[in-house]
Amino acid sequence: ASDEEDIAEEAVTLIDVDYEVLPFVIGWEEAAKAGAPVLWGDSNLVGSSWEHTRGDVDAGFAEADTVVEGRFTTWAKPHSGNVAHAPVMNEAWTASWENGMMHIWTDTQGPHGDTRTAASTLGLPYNQVVALPTYSGVGYGGKGSNSKGKMLAVYISRETNRPVKWRQDSEGYFNTARSQWTNQDHTFKVGVKNDGTLTAISDISNNESGSWGGRASSDSHRVVQAMFETTNLYLKGSDWATNAQGVGTPRCVAHPSSTATVGPMMDSVAEKLGMNPGAFLVKNVNARHDVNDLDFDWDIGSNPMPDMLEKLIEDSSFNSKWKGWGTPMSASGSKKRGIGLGIHVCRHGYLSNPMSAMVKANRDGTFQINVGSYDCGTGSRTALALMAAEELGVPAEAVTMSMYRTDTTQESVGTGGSRVTRGSGTAVIVACRDAKQQLFKIAIDAGLIEAGAPEDLESETGNIYLKADKATTITVKAATAKQNTVNGPIIGRGAYATKRDRWMHRQWGACAAEVEVDTDTGEVTVLDTWVWHDVGRVIWHTGCINQIYGGTTMAVGRAITEGLVKDEATGITLNPNYTEYKIMTHMDIPDMHITPYESIDPYAPFGAKGIGEPICATPQPAVANAIYNAIGGTRITSTMITPDKVLAAIGKA
Questions:
Q1: Does pLDDT of 292 surpass 90?
Q2: Helices (H), 166-276
Q3: What is the average pLDDT across 206-212?
Q4: Relative to the CA of 576, which of 57, 150, 317, 422 has its CA 20 to 30 Å away?
Q5: pLDDT in tens, 429-462
Q6: Cα end-to-end span (Å), the chain
Q7: To the nearest whole number, what is the mean pLDDT of the chain?
Q8: Beta bridge partners of 94
Q9: Residue 100 burial (CB < 10 Å; 0-12/13-18/19+)?
Q10: Calpha distance 605→423 (Å, rounded)
Q11: DSSP sequence for 83-115
């Protein structure tokens, strides 16, 4: 540590490190072999395999007219495909020890977690640490609280009584972050009738856990478990420790990787039957809602399928563009065009334990909202303020969100899991209802309006009115002005925790993608996408659309360009930066036709669902299926569909 960068760099050169090169394994197949180097414990198998059975799978296969088998992965040799979790906006901390208090300026997804990290590192009580979050443009599940860099920053700051800045560099994210997407390898067996009716599905997966033992086996199968309405289902997943980055949640858990494999598999089944892939998906997609979601007894609320899928097919003109199996949309010289579909389902937005909010009324009829969850570039502050204005019955401009700092903002669980809209939104509504009861009581006690109890009143468009006689009104401002002399001040409190044994969200997505493939070079260009997403109710339209644009862009990149590549001789990552790890640029992003589908959810604030994670899945299978439609040949069975794979598929490698 030094005041000057040159001195710090010189100090680093004076440190001698002796490395002992140990045996290593890359990829689950190597990790599972007898005699493979074991990272820790007795076996590279992490825990025990996860299994789930519905109905009688053997009977279902016996009933089938056709059984189709396939293996699809999100990785391939040379070892590639694991999606990096390295935000372009890197995480940074500035720590400053002043007058017995540690102040932290932080870009994070959990400011209260940061205060606990600093307090535990220094042996301080929580009230001697204040986190003051700066505006964060992106989190994607990777900006946690336990970074060693954060611990060093607060330690050095207290030791030197100087402000200290720590920043995670991109190479650190690429090589050490515990939040890569897990590589998944799925072996499918699907039984189907000649009319396209599914009779049985078997999905056996092996998942790469990296060096930290993360598990994806149960999560990776939730997609297949909920996506199709087949009576007979067998799922088994195993997780394997490897000498690779830790796995976790780069804008989602294991669901999109599973969708990336099951999408091409179901396209293969439709091809085997000679059936239009859109018609096949519409016939078999899970259309259930409310209670009893196949394997569950809880209520799953709204389900837009198959209506949303049918509308996507119509919107994209899929049926007129799709010319049949083995026939591209069009061909011009070496360039061929194709179209494909992808669908997705996951269970995000219901993990909210607990979320909190407070609302404070000002004397001039304006309100300030204090929410325990932090905005990581998702626009939740705007959406929550709009919810508050609606519930309070005042114009949107009468509500502002207070600045977040941990010494004045109550704690909520960290931002993630697409849960802020659902959890914090509900907490905001509860807090606003608490504040309204206080507001209405003040209006009655101050003699501003005649009513027997606060329950007899309601508010709307900046006015308080008598439910029995809507013409009898006073302004909200007239009542808030009395709060310091009659029963005030007005401070509403709200908290919410999910009843997990009662309900859960199901978020659905559907995508059609058009691609152009140059069969001389193998280059793939994604030309156009039609993206429909189940959003519940749209609260803030601009923010919702922007979220879908961003998620679609990421998913297209993960389909054709994004993936970490390992040197198999050394285990070293060869592309730990944004020069060689290829994300979509403005020149690469396809046209997007985006439609939020409003399936009003009965268990959500104003019917809204969280969408941060679910939007990252459908373009991957859609693009893969479109490439196959364009070129035919051998179906490409892995993501990161690079030109060499395209050329190999058509026999030109």
A1: no
A2: 170-176, 217-227, 255-273
A3: 89
A4: 150
A5: 999 999 999 999 999 999 999 999 999 999 999 9
A6: 52
A7: 92
A8: 105, 165
A9: exposed
A10: 8
A11: PP---SS--EEEEEEETTEEEEEE--S-HHHHH
68-117 pLDDT per residue, tens: 999 999 987 777 878 888 888 888 889 999 999 999 998 888 899 999 99
Of the candidates 208, 514, 516, 613, the residue annotated as catalytic is 613
Q: Give the phi and the psi of residue 441 in degrees, each rounded to 5.
A: -65, -40
613 given a catalytic annotation:
yes
Backbone angle region of 123, left / alpha / beta, with phi > 0 → left and psi within -120 to 50 → alpha? left
Q: Which long-range contacts (CB under 8 A, 24 or more apart) does 437-442 make?
A: 438/361, 438/487, 438/488, 438/490, 438/491, 438/492, 439/361, 439/464, 439/476, 439/479, 439/480, 439/483, 439/490, 440/464, 440/479, 441/487, 442/479, 442/480, 442/482, 442/483, 442/486, 442/487, 442/488, 442/490
Cα 78 from Cα 80, distance rounded (Å):
6
User: For residue range 141-180, what is the model confidence (pLDDT) as tens digits?
Assistant: 878 767 788 899 999 999 999 999 998 888 888 887 777 8
Mean pLDDT of 385-396: 98
SS (H, E, C) 359-425: EEECCCCCEEEEECCCCCCCCHHHHHHHHHHHHHCCCHHHEEECCCCCCCCCCCCCCCCCCHHHHHH
- Which tokens hold the place of 133? 């979050």
Q: What is the pTM of this model?
A: 0.95
Core vs surface per residue 514-553: b (16+ CB within 10 A) or e: bbbbbbeebbbebebbbbbbbbbbbbbeebbbebbebbbb
Peptide bond into 78 cis (omega under 30): yes
Task: Please report, to the nearest 10 degrees, the dihedral formed by the alpha carbons of residues 566, 569, 186, 511 taken in order.
Answer: 20
For residues 481 and 471, the answer to whether their CB atoms sit within 8 Å is: no
Q: The tokens of 491 are what?
A: 């401070």
Tens-place pLDDT, residues 608-652: 998 888 999 999 999 999 999 999 999 999 999 999 999 999 999
* Joined tokens for residue 232: 């007979």
Question: Alpha-carbon distance 348 to 252, whole Å?
Answer: 9
The percent of the chain in helix, strand and coil, each rounded to the nearest 5, is 30, 25, 45
The residue with greater pLDDT, 418 or 264, is 264
482 φ/ψ angles, rounded to the nearest 5 degrees: -90, -5
Q: What average pLDDT does range 402-417 have in this prediction?
A: 87
| Alpha carbons 459 and 438: distance in angstroms, whole number | 13
Q: What is the pLDDT of residue 501?
A: 52
How far is the C-alpha of 601 from the C-alpha of 425, rounded, in Å?
13
Q: Length of the chain, please?
A: 653
Q: Largest alpha-carbon pair distance within the chain? A: 86
472-506 per-position pLDDT tens digit = 999 999 999 999 899 889 999 999 886 655 667 78
Tokens of 446: 């101050």
7: phi then psi, degrees, rounded to nearest 5:
-70, -40
**Beta pairing class for 66-73 and 184-192:** antiparallel
- Nearest alpha carbon to residue 511 among 558, 577, 448, 573: 558
